[in-house]
Write a structure and sequence with these properties.
The complex is a heterotrimer of chains A (176), B (262) and C (367).
Chain A (H helix, E strand, L loop, with lengths): L2 E8 L4 H15 L3 E7 L8 E9 L13 E4 L2 H8 L7 E5 L10 E5 L1 H7 L7 H13 L4 H11 L5 H16 L2
Parallel strand pairs in A: 1-4, 4-5, 5-6
Antiparallel strand pairs in A: 1-3, 2-3
Chain B lengths: L21 H15 L6 E5 L14 E4 L5 H11 L4 E7 H7 L1 H10 L4 E6 L34 H8 L3 E6 L3 H13 L4 E6 L3 H5 L7 H10 L1 E3 H9 L9 E8 L10
Parallel strand pairs in B: 1-2, 1-3, 3-4, 4-6, 5-6, 7-8
Antiparallel strand pairs in B: 5-8
Chain C lengths: L1 E7 H11 L4 E4 L6 H10 L6 E4 L3 H13 L4 E5 L1 H17 L3 E9 L5 E5 L4 H6 L8 E3 L4 H18 L2 E7 H5 L1 E7 L38 E3 L14 H16 L2 H4 L2 E4 L5 E5 L3 H12 L4 E6 L1 E3 L3 H4 L7 E6 L4 H7 L6 E5 L8 H9 L3
Parallel strand pairs in C: 2-3, 2-4, 4-5, 5-8, 7-8, 12-13, 12-15, 15-16
Antiparallel strand pairs in C: 1-9, 5-6, 7-14, 11-13
The chains are: A alpha/beta (176), B alpha/beta (262), C alpha/beta (367).
Chain lengths: 176, 262, 367
């Protein structure tokens, strides 16, 4: 089964890292295939950032996302640029703290930035909260694989914080 | 062994014009190399393009005659890939200071362990006498037919400002001093730069009122100002006469260097 | 044995270089190739190798030639503008028969163009970009796995044929992350040993490749970009000598075209045949997978230069060749030289890979 996942937000939120972690979870720990790509602008910070990952049980041929079935949107500009096109049967996870629009497709509001700030005191891990919620809602990779891929990818000394963020996301994503 | 044993006998005669100063500089360099006791198989000569850069091809050792201006970049690769090799670069004023200017300042900045001998004839000799970045103001060349209007580079000041560990300037008249300076450069870890002002009777002298080779060499001698004397003059508030250039050891220091044999 | 990794193409290229024993990298930062330099800056010193950030791409190319003569397996990586700057010294490497590897992660050109977008616009430049006649080898990876494997292969071909070898990647594959299986070891083919006493540029063997007299080993070799005789001595005014030298430099590569050919032939009986190299391979694969039509053939080329013209003859029933390229038909024109049936170029500029739908449209369009 081929899943096409699109992440968007603003530069600095860890949008590209989110897609890399998800692809890594699929390839390294779930024995699947993944192909991750991104859109580069000239800005190093700010602007609408977008990254996509394809996850498949079979080898991936065409590596570009053409019609995402899963969206993770973390900024209003990201929604307008990369999320507004979403239609059923896609599902979108929106960071309800930062995105006020809602798509025409099915969506789940996740107050990731607020929860990261209030519960974990660090809004920098909002992207990991979103990843947890994404996996809870779609099972596109296993929880165990996601956990291992997060531990591979985050800076030393931040492992506990990131795992807490993932678990928080798993809880939020399970709610209907 | 003498310095003459470093020449490829089967490449003679050479292409240099009668009266050219380059041969003097090559002799001085090889004599200095010989005094170092370096073996032919561990000494590499690298050069760019121009009359000066033909030098590498007359030497019985591994040598790399590269593209115009790029000798220092090639030499950087040789030296960094095998720090056990001694690398000597022959270049000229056009090769080093015009097309190769960027490589020159960066090789100085890196202070990479090379010895660079620049034969500065103040003109493009091989292509028939065009102005170079060291052609003095007012001098005639085929591309400065009304006199050179651009101020020249002082290559030694450039090397020192950019970070070279060793810098000296002599002329083809100062054979003994030049040989000693090259040897000091070979001994100094890091980037060593030796500028040798040379006569070019064919392209420069002919256009600039040096009827005889000896006239040009005499000009180089009489316009040389020893560094110590220059320093004294400055101390005493004396004016340095126009047209004089400083000779001697101008910089010797021990900045951190790259590529030095461990 | 292999181990899986989830790597970016540029990382795979750098790791392939390390596996191949690359011990010198000289480069200059340029999008979209910079990750290769960054990866090697971190890894090479720990393996006893040298990473040099040079002052420009001219110097980068010069430094790897110098390093190669000093015995290193040497590489640089760049993209369009830097590749243009390297051209003079690439010719020097060809003339002096210097083994070295140049990676070009192609981006949109001409000029500064599209730094972050993909293209294949340098396919003719890599073959003919430096002045004069010469021949080189160019490989095009279509997967992250091939970024690794073909980089290794570049080093082996460079050493074997004593020629600059190019990994002509593109931003699509260079920046994509995907699954890759890393082998425990890779094959290494070294340089032909030099027989002491021989003139250093005499090529006595039928392969026309002289042994390599590495600097510092006592052979007193003179290496010059001037037309030179077998001794390596300048002989720039001899018409015959120049003709013989340049012919040999070209023939040693062109004569080995079958030996180094690397391509896949799929559905050789088909009438409609796609030909692709680099990223567009992936779109053709998707179309082949989706259509499952034995009447659609596919020639997937990894070694683009020298061009494997014999591969074209394997499609005996071909009525039409379709060539998707991220340029205005550079290799399509090369293919036209070799076949009698129509060649339909499917060019795409702008930085995005052809979509499967675009190729299907081209397939269904009447000739």
């Amino acid at each position: 089964m081929r899943h096409e996942v699109r992440f968007s937000g603003f530069g600095g939120q860890g949008i590209i890292l989110s897609a890399v972690i998800l692809g890594r979870a699929a390839v390294m720990y779930d024995n699947k295939f993944a192909a991750q790509t991104q859109v580069y602008g000239p800005e190093a910070r700010g602007g609408a950032s977008m990254s996509q990952v394809i996850i498949d049980d079979e080898e991936i041929l065409y590596p570009k996302v053409s019609d995402p079935d899963i969206y993770v949107i973390m900024s209003q500009e990201g929604f307008e640029k990369y999320g507004a096109v979403a239609r059923d049967p896609a599902v979108m996870l929106v960071d309800s703290t930062l995105v006020h629009s809602r798509p025409e497709c099915r969506y789940i509001g996740i107050p990731a930035t607020r929860e990261a700030k209030q519960t974990l005191k660090r809004d920098i891990v909002a992207n990991i909260v979103m990843l947890g919620a994404l996996v809870a809602a779609t099972h596109v990779v296993s929880e165990e694989a996601l956990k291992k891929a997060i531990l591979d990818s985050v800076p030393k000394g931040t492992e506990d914080l990131n795992i807490k963020a993932m678990q928080l996301g798993l809880q939020l994503g399970k709610q209907p | 062994m003498s310095f003459e044993d470093w020449y490829r006998q089967d490449r003679l005669p050479h292409i240099f014009c009668a009266g050219c100063g380059n041969g003097t500089v090559i002799n001085c360099t090889l004599a200095a190399v010989e005094q170092m006791g370096w073996k032919q198989e561990e000494t590499i000569f690298v050069s760019g393009i121009g009359c000066s850069s033909r030098a590498s091809g007359y030497i019985l050792a591994d040598s790399l005659h590269t593209t115009h201006g790029r000798a220092l970049a090639f030499a950087t690769g040789v030296k960094m890939a095998n720090k056990g090799l001694h690398v000597v670069v022959f270049t000229g004023d056009g090769d080093l200071a015009a097309i190769g200017g960027n490589h020159f300042i960066h090789a100085c900045r890196r202070n990479i362990d090379l010895t660079v001998v620049c034969m500065n004839n103040q003109i493009y000799g091989m292509t028939g006498g065009q102005g170079s970045p060291t052609t003095p103001l007012g001098c005639l060349s085929s591309t400065t037919p009304y006199g050179c209007a651009e101020p020249p580079f002082d290559l030694c000041e450039l090397a020192a400002a950019a970070g070279a560990n060793y810098v000296s300037r002599w002329t083809s008249y100062h054979v003994k001093e030049l040989e000693k300076a090259v040897k000091a450069g070979l001994e100094t870890p890091g980037f060593s730069f030796i500028e040798a002002l040379v006569q070019c009777p064919t392209a420069f002298g002919r256009r600039n009122k040096f009827k005889q080779v000896a006239d040009h060499v005499e000009h180089l001698r009489s316009h040389s100002l020893l560094k110590a004397k220059r320093d004294r003059m400055i101390e005493n508030g004396e004016q340095i006469p126009a047209g004089m250039f400083v000779v001697g050891e101008l910089t010797r220091r021990n900045r951190p260097a790259m590529g030095v044999k461990p | 044995m292999t181990r899986p990794e989830f790597w970016q193409g540029n990382t795979a290229c750098a790791e392939g270089a390390l596996a191949a024993g690359c011990s010198f990298f000289g480069g200059y930062p340029i999008t979209p190739s910079t990750e290769i330099a960054e990866h090697l800056a971190a890894k090479l010193p720990k393996k006893g190798g040298v990473f040099m950030q040079m002052e420009d791409e001219i110097a980068s190319m010069a430094s790897i030639i110098g390093a190669s003569w000093a015995g290193a397996r040497a590489m640089t990586a760049t993209s369009g503008p830097g590749f243009s700057l390297m051209m003079e010294n690439i010719g020097f490497a060809a003339m002096t028969e210097t083994p070295c590897v140049v990676v070009n992660v192609q981006r949109g050109g001409p000029s500064t163009g599209q730094p972050t977008m993909s293209a294949q616009g340098d396919m003719m430049q890599v073959r003919f970009g430096s002045h004069g006649d010469y021949a080189v080898i160019a490989l095009c990876p279509a997967t992250v796995q091939e970024m690794y494997e073909l980089t290794v292969k570049c080093f082996n071909l460079a050493d074997k044929y004593r020629v600059p070898v190019f990994l002509m990647a593109d931003e699509t594959i260079g920046h994509m992350r995907e699954k890759i299986l890393i082998p425990d070891t890779v094959e290494r083919v070294g340089r032909k040993p030099f027989v002491p006493g021989n003139p250093p540029f005499r090529a006595a063997d039928p392969d026309l490749i002289p042994g390599f007299p590495q600097f510092g080993t006592g052979h007193h070799v003179h290496v010059t970009g001037l037309t030179h005789d077998e001794r390596g001595y300048p002989a720039a005014t001899s018409p015959q000598l120049h003709m013989d030298l340049v012919k040999r430099l070209v023939d040693k590569i062109e004569n080995a075209r079958d030996e180094m050919a690397d391509y896949d032939v799929i559905n050789p009986d088909a009438e409609q045949v796609f030909i692709a190299y680099g990223a567009p391979v992936r779109t053709v694969q998707q179309v082949m997978h989706d259509r499952k039509d034995p009447n659609i053939g596919f020639l997937r080329i990894r070694v683009v230069w020298p061009f494997p013209e014999k591969a074209l003859a394997k499609f005996k029933n071909a009525k039409r060749f379709l060539i998707p390229e991220m340029n205005l038909g550079q290799i399509a024109r090369e293919i036209e030289r070799h076949v009698k049936v129509p060649v339909r170029s499917i060019p795409k500029l702008g930085g995005e890979l052809h979509t499967p739908a675009e190729l299907v449209r081209a397939l269904e369009a009447q000739p």
